[in-house]
Each structure stands twice: as structure tokens, then as C-alpha cells.
């Protein structure tokens, strides 16, 4: 390895140019007096499939776009190991995700506030969601306009999805116009982060418009090794590029925004984490924080598949060569049609049982079916009724396996490890059947392909949940914020690493409890709020 070089000193060094990092780079560099360095492990987002919405089919599972992580074998999934996709480019996972704009529920953030986290209640975060938003319908009580985060309605509809909404209504799930008002109970079309039929990633919204700022430097293709701490304060960020090791001096603060997988690993390589674990890898302990890498939460999706007849699905259209050609023409001429599709177009939020105060299941209905993302569509008409437990009680972990950045992480989501989560999994399969076999679906003769009608008892359903369950790509919580009396808290409520001056974590890993829905837009909110805290604290120094 080449000799370490001190390249420059910056006011702020941001490690990770995913959803949070792009927001931070934008906000921190807005003052020309701040010199900002943004470090990204992936490359530039100059691949066509980062921008055509349906490109997630080609990006997930492709090492050009995906870090290709895998979990350990999971007991709750009957011994299976899962692919664990994370975006590997500017914009991070917002460049390969489902593009669904979802805030979660007001109760999620009020719960954070009740945990003692000041400034994180629904009334506190709603203004932040609104100020970063540019909603196609303009400003309103719940939506903002003029921000960087574009939100539009989908540009394609399917009759099969409308019939599913009718069936959900017959099952007692009301139709609602908007999932983002604080209570998302009901069914609706998802709103999406797109503009004019193209994906709107965090890089496109927040980073690219400010790349010409002379006080902002962006480095791609780097491996962030660690932060250096001198007398309790961060003084540099060490990273590798093109075979050389570099040190970027930190005058103000360093921020880890490498996501729920990457940020805890950087902390551990920096000597910040559980002392015994670090010592086992030959890493000197800088700060004993046992919560680093713990508290992993994710939404496990179970993917029942139903064959249908006499109605179009993407399966039937894809395998018709004329229809497939027309998809391309429709997109090229009008930016409409199936190529603008998010993986899921219609959602439904319900309670798995009356014991829950708010909806704890989220359905992602898809007018398609396949064995796994990255594999081809089935050659028969079908749809998928993916359903996930929004507030799992299972907790997992992400830790390093060695002291080098190239060492793969040890990812253990620990899915279905509690009795409560196992019961919700069973109830979610019952709910899928309850919706699908309502009268509005009868003309299309739905037939359960997976797990199959033969799966009848709760024990059989639990086994099926373990066979069908997979990540829905929402890992959070591995560097959670908490109060002084919470021994597992890595951060305080201003996102500062406990016991280390000049170091924050700002990304999905800060969540103490997962939000009730897709997690990308909450991460954008956290980043904007975190940048505001950083700039405010700097003014007070």
C-alpha cells in the first residue's frame, strides 16, 4: 500500500454519497465559506438503468450497481441466506430502489419523541418533509413544493391492480388518496420519486445541481477505512483510492452516511464499538460503544403469488413480442407505460389483528411475478401480493469480519426470531388470501401459486413464510440515537457519536425504531434535519 498522504483539510467530510450524503453535501456546501469533501465507494451514476425506472430489474444483483452483500444463513428463513442489495453509485440505494415516496406514520415519530429524543416527533419532522419536497400537485397542508425531492403520481395503471383495490375494499380496506398524511391505513397508488417518467434519485435531486460549487469536492471509487481520533476528537478521515491511502483533515466535523450496513463498519474500524469485538480483530479501542452494529431492523417481505386469467399482467405483456416492443415505443415517445413502473404500484396498509393501534402490515401489489429479483418473469399471467411486517420486534446485527474495508460484513437480520413476528407472518398470509378471494377478483379465477392452497395450518404457513420471506431493502437502526441512560445508544438526539467530538452519523442507521413504510424518504428527512443541526451548532461555537 502506498504511503499515506494528507491531501487537504476540509470543514466537513461526508463518508457516503447515498441518499443522506447527497443531501448533506448540498446543505453543508451552501455556505461558500465551508469546504466540503464527499466520499463515495461506488462510481458515477452514468448508466442508463440508473435513470429508466424499470432499471432496478437490471441493477439489483449487478456488481456495477449493487454491493452484492449477503446475510448469514437465517434460522427464521429455514436456513436460507439472502442477497442484501445496497446501491453502489452516487445516490446510493435511491438509484436502484423502488422509488416509493413514503413517510411512515405520525405514531412512528411520536414514539421516537416518547423515547426522549427531542425534536423528532411528527410535528417536528413534517415541516422537514415538506421543505425538501417538490410535489407534482403543489403545496398543501401535508405536501411541499419547490424542494429538491420530486414526488409524482405513477404514469402507468393496470386493471388488475384496480380490481385488487376493489377486492381490498370488499375486505374492509378503504380506498384513500394519499399515504403520507400521518395515517396510511387503506389502499392507494404509491406516489413515486420520478420526474417526467425518469427516476429521481438523491444524486439527481440534491447533488448534481450543486456540483459546480468550488467549495464542494466529490471523490468516487474510494474505500473509507476509518476516522482518526486525537484526544477525543476526529481529526481526519482515512480512505483508499487507486491503490493509495489518503488522509482528509477535518477542521469541523466528519459525518458517516454510508448507510445501515456501511456506517457501523466504519465506526468499528475506527475503534468505536464493543471493545471485546474490536480487540478480537486487532483493532485498538478508541471508545467502547456496545450498541454499534446492533439493533438492526428490516421489513421482511413475504411474497405470495397468484395466477390469474383473462386480464393483463406484466408477465403476459413481456412475453408478447409486439407488446414488449410497444413498451419501448411508449416510453421513448411519451415517457409512459411499463418502463416507468416502480416494482410496486399499489399499496395497502392494514392491521394484522385488532391488538395493533395502527396498521402494521404493508402490501406491495405488483402486476407481475418472478422467482426472485434479477430473474426473469414467469410465463403465465400472475401478480404478487408482497406483504411485510412494518414494526418487527426481531433485532439483528451488522458487524465487521476483519479490519479491512474490503472484508465482507457479517449481516444477521435475525428475521422471525420472536413469537410476535412469527404470528404476524402467519396473519399476513391470511390477509393476502382474505383480499385476493373477494368477489371483485372472481372473474379472473385467482389461484395461489405460492405458497399454494395446500398450505393450510398455521404451522405450515410459518414454514412457508420462512421459504418466501426476503428483505424489502429497508435496513435501519445499527447506530441508533438514544438518551443518556440508554446503554445501547450510539448517538445522542443531535446525531453526535457519544464520547467523540466532531463525529456524527446521519443516515438510516440512526433510527431507534423502524418507520411504518418504505425508508428512503425518512432518510432524506433525517439528513436535512441533521445538516440543520450541524450548521446550527457551528454557528453556536
UniProtKB/TrEMBL annotation:
<keyword id="KW-0285">Flavoprotein</keyword>
<dbReference type="InterPro" id="IPR012132">
    <property type="entry name" value="GMC_OxRdtase"/>
</dbReference>
<protein>
    <submittedName>
        <fullName>GMC family oxidoreductase N-terminal domain-containing protein</fullName>
    </submittedName>
</protein>
<comment type="similarity">
    <text>Belongs to the GMC oxidoreductase family.</text>
</comment>
<feature type="domain" description="Glucose-methanol-choline oxidoreductase N-terminal">
    <location>
        <begin position="87"/>
        <end position="110"/>
    </location>
</feature>
<keyword id="KW-0274">FAD</keyword>
<dbReference type="Pfam" id="PF05199">
    <property type="entry name" value="GMC_oxred_C"/>
</dbReference>
<dbReference type="GO" id="GO:0016614">
    <property type="term" value="F:oxidoreductase activity, acting on CH-OH group of donors"/>
</dbReference>
<dbReference type="InterPro" id="IPR000172">
    <property type="entry name" value="GMC_OxRdtase_N"/>
</dbReference>
<dbReference type="InterPro" id="IPR036188">
    <property type="entry name" value="FAD/NAD-bd_sf"/>
</dbReference>
<dbReference type="Pfam" id="PF00732">
    <property type="entry name" value="GMC_oxred_N"/>
</dbReference>
<dbReference type="GO" id="GO:0050660">
    <property type="term" value="F:flavin adenine dinucleotide binding"/>
</dbReference>
<dbReference type="InterPro" id="IPR007867">
    <property type="entry name" value="GMC_OxRtase_C"/>
</dbReference>
<feature type="binding site">
    <location>
        <position position="224"/>
    </location>
    <ligand>
        <name>FAD</name>
    </ligand>
</feature>
<feature type="domain" description="Glucose-methanol-choline oxidoreductase N-terminal">
    <location>
        <begin position="259"/>
        <end position="273"/>
    </location>
</feature>
Amino acid at each position: 500500500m502506498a504511503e499515506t498522504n494528507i491531501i487537504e483539510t476540509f470543514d466537513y467530510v461526508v463518508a457516503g454519497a447515498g441518499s443522506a450524503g447527497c443531501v448533506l453535501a448540498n446543505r453543508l456546501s451552501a455556505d461558500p465559506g465551508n469546504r466540503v469533501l464527499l466520499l463515495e465507494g461506488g462510481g458515477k451514476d452514468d448508466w442508463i438503468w440508473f435513470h429508466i425506472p424499470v432499471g432496478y430489474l437490471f441493477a439489483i444483483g449487478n456488481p456495477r450497481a449493487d454491493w452484492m452483500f449477503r446475510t448469514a444463513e437465517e434460522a427464521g428463513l429455514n436456513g436460507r441466506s439472502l442477497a442484501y442489495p445496497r446501491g453502489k453509485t452516487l445516490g446510493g440505494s435511491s438509484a436502484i430502489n423502488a422509488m416509493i415516496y413514503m413517510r411512515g406514520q405520525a405514531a412512528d415519530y411520536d414514539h421516537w419523541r416518547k423515547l426522549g429524543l427531542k425534536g423528532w416527533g411528527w410535528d417536528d419532522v413534517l415541516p422537514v418533509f415538506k421543505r425538501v419536497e417538490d410535489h407534482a400537485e403543489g403545496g398543501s397542508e401535508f405536501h411541499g413544493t419547490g424542494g429538491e425531492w420530486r414526488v409524482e403520481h405513477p404514469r402507468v395503471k393496470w386493471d388488475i391492480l384496480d380490481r385488487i383495490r376493489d377486492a381490498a375494499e370488499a375486505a374492509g380496506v378503504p380506498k384513500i388518496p394519499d399515504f403520507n398524511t400521518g395515517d396510511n391505513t387503506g389502499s392507494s397508488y404509491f406516489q413515486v420519486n420520478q420526474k417526467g417518467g425518469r427516476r429521481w434519485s438523491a444524486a439527481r435531486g440534491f447533488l448534481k445541481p450543486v456540483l459546480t460549487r468550488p467549495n464542494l469536492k466529490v471523490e468516487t471509487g474510494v474505500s473509507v477505512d476509518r476516522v482518526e481520533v486525537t484526544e477525543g476528537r476526529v481529526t481526519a478521515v482515512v480512505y483508499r483510492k487507486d491503490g493509495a491511502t489518503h488522509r482528509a483533515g477535518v477542521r469541523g466535523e466528519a459525518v458517516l452516511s454510508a448507510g445501515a450496513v456501511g456506517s457501523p463498519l466504519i465506526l468499528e474500524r475506527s475503534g468505536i464499538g464493543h471493545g471485546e469485538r474490536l480487540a478480537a480483530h486487532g483493532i485498538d479501542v478508541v471508545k467502547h460503544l456496545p450498541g454499534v452494529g446492533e439493533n438492526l431492523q428490516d421489513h421482511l417481505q413475504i411474497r405470495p403469488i397468484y395466477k390469474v386469467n383473462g386480464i393483463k399482467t406484466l408477465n403476459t405483456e413481456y412475453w408478447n413480442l409486439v407488446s414488449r416492443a410497444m413498451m419501448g415505443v411508449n416510453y421513448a415517445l411519451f415517457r409512459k407505460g411499463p418502463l416507468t413502473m416502480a416494482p410496486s404500484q399499489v399499496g395497502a396498509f392494514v392491521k394484522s389483528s385488532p391488538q395493533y393501534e395502527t396498521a402494521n402490515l404493508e402490501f406491495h401489489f405488483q402486476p407481475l411475478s418472478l422467482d426472485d429479483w434479477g430473474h426473469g418473469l414467469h410465463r403465465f399471467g400472475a401478480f404478487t401480493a408482497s406483504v411485510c411486517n412494518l414494526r418487527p420486534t426481531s433485532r439483528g446485527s451488522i458487524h465487521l469480519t476483519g479490519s479491512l474495508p474490503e472484508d465482507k460484513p457479517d449481516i444477521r437480520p435475525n428475521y422471525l426470531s420472536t413469537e410476535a413476528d412469527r404470528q404476524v407472518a402467519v396473519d399476513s398470509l391470511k390477509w393476502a388470501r382474505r383480499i385476493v378471494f373477494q368477489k371483485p377478483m372472481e372473474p379472473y379465477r385467482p389461484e395461489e401459486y405460492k405458497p399454494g392452497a395446500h398450505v393450510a395450518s398455521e404451522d405450515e404457513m410459518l414454514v412457508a413464510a420462512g421459504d418466501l420471506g426476503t428483505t424489502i431493502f429497508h435496513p435501519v437502526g445499527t447506530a441508533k440515537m438514544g438518551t443518556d441512560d440508554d446503554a445501547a445508544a450510539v448517538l445522542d438526539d443531535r446525531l453526535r457519536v457519544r464520547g467523540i467530538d466532531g463525529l456524527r452519523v446521519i443516515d438510516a442507521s440512526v433510527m431507534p425504531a423502524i418507520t411504518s413504510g418504505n425508508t428512503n424518504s425518512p432518510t432524506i428527512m433525517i439528513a436535512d434535519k441533521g445538516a440543520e443541526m450541524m450548521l446550527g451548532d457551528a454557528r453556536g461555537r
